[in-house]
Amino acid sequence: MPITAKQKGRATQQRRKQPPADEEVWKAAFKRLDKRSRGAIAIGDLGEALRRAKFVLSEEEVQDYAKDADPDASGTVELPNFLTVAARAKAETLSPEQWAQALDEAFLTFDKVEAGRLKAEDLQGWLTQLGEPLEAKEVAQMLRGLVDENGMVVYQDLVKRLAKL
Amino acid sequence: MGCGPSSSADDDSEQQQQPLQKQQKDDGKKHGKQKRSKSPQTGGKDVTDASVEALSIKSALLIQKWYRRYKARLEARRRTTWMIYQSIEYSSEASQLHLLQTESSPQQPQQQHLSPAGSGDPANNRFAERLRQKSLEEEDQELLELTSYEGIQVEKSYRGPHLSFPLSASHVQVLIDSFRQGTQLHSRYLLQLLHEARLLLKTKPNVYQASTSISRQVTVVGDLHGKLDDLLVIFYKNGLPDVTNPYVFNGDFVDRGANSVETAALLFACCLLVWPSAVFINRGNHEDHLMNCRYGFIKEVQAKYKTPANKIVRLFGDTFSWLPLATNIDDKILVTHGGISDKVDMERVQKLDRHQYLSALKPPVSDNENAKVDYKEWRQVLDLLWSDPKPQAGCAPNTFRGGGCYFGPNITEAFLRKHKFSLLVRSHECKPDGWEFCHGGAVLTLFSASNYYEDGSNKGAYAKFDAEGKPHIVQYMASKARKLPVGRRLSTVEEGALKDLRAKVIASKTELTAAFQRFDPDKTGSIRLADWCEAMEQTLRLGLPWRTLRPHLAQLAKDGRLLYMTSFDCVSIQTKLGASAGKEVAGSLTEAVYKNKEELETIFRIMDKDNSGQISLDEFQESCRVLTQATGRQMTEAEVGDMARSMDLNSDGYIDFNEFLEAFRIIDTRKRQEDAAGAQGGSSG
Q1: Chain B residues closer than 8 Å to A58 by CB
Q2: Would the CB atoms of B64 and A131 count as touching at under 8 Å?
Q3: CATH-assigned architecture of domain B166-365+373-476
Q4: CA distance B175 to A35
Q5: Residues of B with catalytic roles
Q6: H or E element, residue B208
Q7: Given B62, B77, B545, which is nearest A103 (Cβ)?
């Protein structure tokens, strides 16, 4: 569904209220992916761009934003549309601290005995089969250096690693 | 604990606790609930089960979202680090070229003597004299006398490799084994080797013709920059060169790395002399005496060889000028170090006299006052060795580097079509993976020095082409860094880049402070973040994402404004100079010297005719004068005189400029407290 003028107005208003710092981060993320300096990125790069701009999004959410980012379905996203989408994402998502908390709770879901540890193998299984599956090598990269000799992961370390950047 | 796909017996006890969250591939179990998609199962008694399942899915999703963001952020950080290294590297190259080309502007074709403006009679100007070249016969004769190895004896105590000519394959192996152990080749053998190589290179055309008709394949290697480790990895993985295993080395095998001498020796001697038709060595922009003055090759030779260093340096310089400029494989692939431009024409390239260009940075100058400098011809050499491909169409001067062109996809397409090539292979630019295609696959960049900027910064790569011209690319990394998790490795590389960047900031303290203060007329000590970014870019001109880098460089006040003087907190320049004379060297002078350290070093080495590492007081003062004129940076005569005298430690009228340069170092002020009282000079940052 294309953005209505009203929504656009609201988003622009929100954008004006943002501290300019955020917009700079979004612009920088956009520019990195706009390799030919055309003022537009491929629609397929939207997720990467938003994530580099520090948003935590699922693929489904990215698809949702994609419709607004590319209203004329041209396959490209121009900078102004991208900024509008980013502003919307900011309004609709939690702050990084809240997210880190939620991440902690997510691990707790799997850690029924609240031991603070999970089996690396199990983690691998869940993350490559549930939700929006990751590849096995991505999970391996995520856990590298965090698995002790018993094959266990102190997931607090993982939360720190993921939330740090 | 929940269950994963593992079906080991150990898990059974844990599985009892969580019978609901089963995730298995086989359909055997009665209570098994298959969960592949996000939609939970339905069914009467499954309501509680379903909500628990939904919760696991939601949790998994959250973790996955975070991981994807983490991966993207890592990539963003890697890009920023890369930009820092590259922009510092190129801006240094640009200032080098600017320094050397001050007076050789195309509008003045009559100007034959390349001397800094207003320094009086060129004949008396030592700097210009050093750069002028002589006629070929004069030169050859002089060279042979100067660099003779005849008088050098090999001591009985020498434990390094012995060479006898003509070389054989076993000599190659001996050299490899010795170098791997860290032994050095004796100067006599090195000189002999270089003489032979030079003679052979003189017989080669400007563009080698390579053919895969016998070997059915050919390997192309990119920049090595004195990284002997990488060369040995390549030989290990791909075998030593021979008629069935030919190699093209695409330039830049010296400078920057610690083993330029050994790398060059191995390439020349072994490959060229043992297998002359199986090894093709192209010239790179670093096979150039003037570049070597600045980027470490001459320094390495002097440190390793001391007395005979002069001969070795001269002979290398001349031998480099005889290296061909490109290799043509099967008339299908052109391999050259930098790239092309809209002016490069292979026919012209074939015909020119490459030996004239002792350094590609200066047009050749002859004693004949009426001879005109052929700028068009010089252009060919410069463009081949210095250009970079760019995504935008067209051809523009390469302002980033200061020499050569940026060439676009249309330039490549026209060039390939005109000369009937199907691929351009070049090097010259470091790439994170060691290789990169661009211009729709028409250009391949190969860079073979892994860990170029820092341990773990990038992989190296080489390419094997089959008889049809199809490449197979092999990557490698010659260090332990690859075993670290990606985030950790990135921090090391990032820290290195930030260190270099902070050094640049402190070296421009005076200019930057002035720029900051323009935004702070009321002298509050703080300015807006946006203004800080603008001041940084205006002064340093590195084209970096300053806002992103800010947390590493300066502090914010509580109100969000930027405390600009904190930009200078992490490091400071320290100098030992003047301490023995009991005087403080003025802060701004220290800064000026540090900022121009590389230029000064280059000038010193050019002045140092006999490559002894020492110059006279007069020459030192003149060097500073040249620098001031070329860069417009101020150092008064009095200050320079004081500095000079304080460096002349044994009062014999000569200055060891290595000592001089070492006296100016960046130190980490955060570590200063640890460096204790009394220790003068401390440790380097």
Answers
A1: 61, 64-65
A2: yes
A3: 4-Layer Sandwich (3.60)
A4: 45
A5: 286
A6: strand B207-210
A7: B62
CA–CA gap between residue B163 and residue B385 (Å, rounded): 33
- Pick from A61, A52, A62: which is nearest to A25 by CA? A52
Q: Minimal Cα–Cα distance from A127 to chain B, Å?
A: 6
Measure CB to CB from residue B1 to each of A56, A119, A138 and give the nearest one: A119
For B488-568, CATH number out of 3.40.50.300, 1.10.150.110, 1.10.238.10, 3.10.50.40 equals 1.10.238.10
- Best A45, A62, A107, A122 residue to mutate vs chain B (most B CBs within 10 Å): A122
Sign of CA dihedral B104, B105, B110, B111: negative
Say if strands B326-329 and B207-210 run parallel, antiparallel, or are unpaired: parallel
ω before B166 within 30° of 0 (cis)?
yes
Where in chain A are all domains bearing CATH 1.10.238.10?
A: 21-93, 96-163
Q: What are phi and psi of B572, to 5 degrees?
A: -150, 160
Whether A118 contacts chain B with CB within 8 A: yes
CB B312 within 8 A of CB B301: yes
SS (H, E, C) B483-534: HCCHHHHHHHHHHHHHHHHHHHHHHCHHHHHHHHHHCCCCCCCEECHHHHHH
Q: Which CATH superfamily is domain B590-674 in?
A: EF-hand (1.10.238.10)
B5/A32 Cβ within 8 A: no
Note the CATH number of domain A96-163: 1.10.238.10
What's the gap in Å between the CA of B24 and the closest CA on chain A?
A: 10
Q: CA of B377, closest CA in chain A: separation in Å?
A: 32
Question: B230 Cβ partners below 8 Å, 6+ apart?
Answer: B224, B448, B449, B450, B460, B476, B478
| Residue in B1, B79, B530 closest to A112 by CB | B1
Residues of B in contact with A109 (CB under 8 A): 55-56, 59
Distance CA B56, CA B46 (A): 15
**Closest of A85, A53, A56, A49 to residue A69, by C-alpha:** A85
Other Cβ atoms closer than 10 A to B524? 10
Please give the pLDDT value at position B575: 65
Q: In what order do the strands lie in the sheet with B395-397?
A: B388-389, B405-407, B395-397
Residues B287 and B254 sit within 8 Å (Cβ to Cβ) = yes
Min Cα distance B63 → chain A (Å) is 6
Q: Enumerate the CATH 3.60.21.10 domain ranges in chain B, comma separated.
A: 166-365+373-476
Q: What is the ipTM of this complex?
A: 0.77
Give Cα B562 to chain centroid, integer Å.
34
In chain B, CATH 1.10.238.10 covers 488-568, 590-674
Residues in chain B with CB shorter than 8 Å from the CB of A94 are: none
Tokens representing B85?
Answer: 């290294």
pLDDT in tens, B166-207: 888 888 888 999 998 889 999 999 998 898 899 889 889 999
Decide if A52 and B72 are in contact by the 8 Å CB cutoff.
yes
Section B353-366 average pLDDT: 76
Cβ neighbours, 10 Å, residue B189: 23
Indicate the length of chain B as a whole number: 685
Q: What top-level class would CATH report for the domain A21-93? A: mainly alpha
- Choose the closest CB to B69 out of A55, A109, A145: A55
Task: Give residues with Cβ within 8 angstroms of B629, minimum separation 6.
Answer: B102, B116, B117, B118, B119
Per-10-residue mean pLDDT, chain A, length 165? 64 54 81 78 89 85 88 87 87 74 84 84 88 88 84 86 73
- Whether A131 sits inside 8 A of B60 (CB atoms) is yes
Whose structure tokens read 């051809």?
B395
Q: At which residue do the structure tokens 């000590």 appear?
A: B525
Beta-carbon separation of A112 and B548 below 8 A: no
Q: Is residue B476 predicted with pLDDT exceeding 80? A: yes
